[in-house]
Amino acid sequence: MEKIxxxxxxxxxxxxxxxxNVRADMKEKPAPLLNSQxxxxxxxxxLRPVFCDELIKQELDDDTRYIEIPQEIRDFYKMYRPxxxxxxxxxxxxxxxxxxxxxxxxxxxTSGSHxxxxxxxxxxxxxxxxxxxxTTETGAGQWGTALxxxxxxxxxxxxxxxVKVSYEQKPFRREVMRTYGASVTPSPxxxxxxGKKILAEFPRTGGSLGCAxxxxxxxxxxxxxxxxxxxxxxxxxxxxxxIIGLETKTALDKxxxxxxxxxxCAGGGSNLGGLISPFMGEKLRGEKDxxxxxxxxxxxxxxxxxxxxxxxxxxGKVTPLAKMYTLGNGFIPASxxxxxxxxxxxxxxxxxxxxxxxMEARSVTQTEVxxxxxxxxxxxxxxxxxxxxxxxxxxxxEAIKCKExxxxxxxxxxxxxxxxxxxxxxxxxxxxxxxxxxxxxxxLQKGFNSLPKVNK
Length: 456
Ligand SMILES: *Cc1c(COP(=O)(O)O)cnc(C)c1O
Hints:
The protein is an alpha/beta fold. The chain has two domains: 254 residues, Rossmann fold (3-Layer(aba) Sandwich); 166 residues, 3-Layer(aba) Sandwich (Rossmann fold), CATH 3.40.50.1100. 42% of the residues lie in helices and 16% in strands. A seven-stranded mixed β-sheet has the order 1-4-5-15-10-11-14, with helices on both faces. Strands 8-7-6-9 form a four-stranded parallel β-sheet, sandwiched between helices. Helix 6 packs parallel to helix 8 and helix 15 crosses helix 16. Pyridoxal-5'-phosphate binds next to helix 12 and helix 16.
């Protein structure tokens, strides 16, 4: 058979025209969002004050298998997609493994991550609805950057609340967002009531993602023609990110390659969910079997050590309740260099699939992750984001197992982005100053104590 090319690209007419909604193939659907006061199921009308109309429909749609990608979004995708599926020949050789390793590289755009795939969709629907702009939060900055790019493309205003410590420590990310025309406010700020309240109580706080979410939601509610958008966790984001898995599957099918193991890092679950969706669909329909592995930081282990329960999506407790694997909205993860994975919960589709045994999860420590990141950078030539390197770690571990057993497994993993803005973290690792924090049972209990009492 023809040698598999180093990079498998798709031609323009092979690019997906539909997103795939894995919920349609789930016999047991993910649990619905609940109103935190009444514990009633949230419907379309309940969500309209906060979210864009079309995105709510996607959020609530558990039945439509394929949802057409509007032409305008496909035109934008064409500028930076297809993302290449790369055979890691050099990594395989260096590991001396019989395993075949492929990675889907999503770092080929200015935002440096897969987040642009959903940002452009969300901006499109906001524009189509005739909105003036959107508000959001950003932690490490990848989502804020992606959304700024998407908003500038469609001529929307974009207001980003950036966790204050990141705002101060990552000035370059901030300037990229401003270059794309977004306004960036360090959170907590004095521009919202919730921000003022938090500042009065904790004047020296460096902020948190939970606080920034609360501020962004308040701002969207107060401004005419604005809605709030979110870069992960929600089902609509997973749907948009299915473009990753669909392209991967088309590329593999083209060469008759069948993966045994598919691996992704998991923060809120969007890249992992997007990558595995079409493969998971086959597994759910009983057509094929694959192993799926979610990789999370040992410092924020929502799948491996969390509880499957209803919880708030933010620390300020302004969001609806979602049923998910969670460490509790009050769980404060130790500062970590994989900012994009510091979230207390997990998307509810993935939570349900994990709970039913369709997917595995593993947690890895920070130093193990950076060791894998440097190993990969030195042979494959890409400087990976710390978040993405969680997937690299487990891909390498699985390839080493193959060496021991002599099995020629095919491993596919998602390389979600590049690490150029994370050089302080790489510096710490190079200087031997990086620590590993693993929460104790007691730390976790504090988080679990913040779970709302819901009997569902
Ligand atoms: C945000 C981010 C992640 C984690 O988010 P998910 O929603 O879990 O995919 C992973 N990698 C990179 C590069 C990110 O920016």
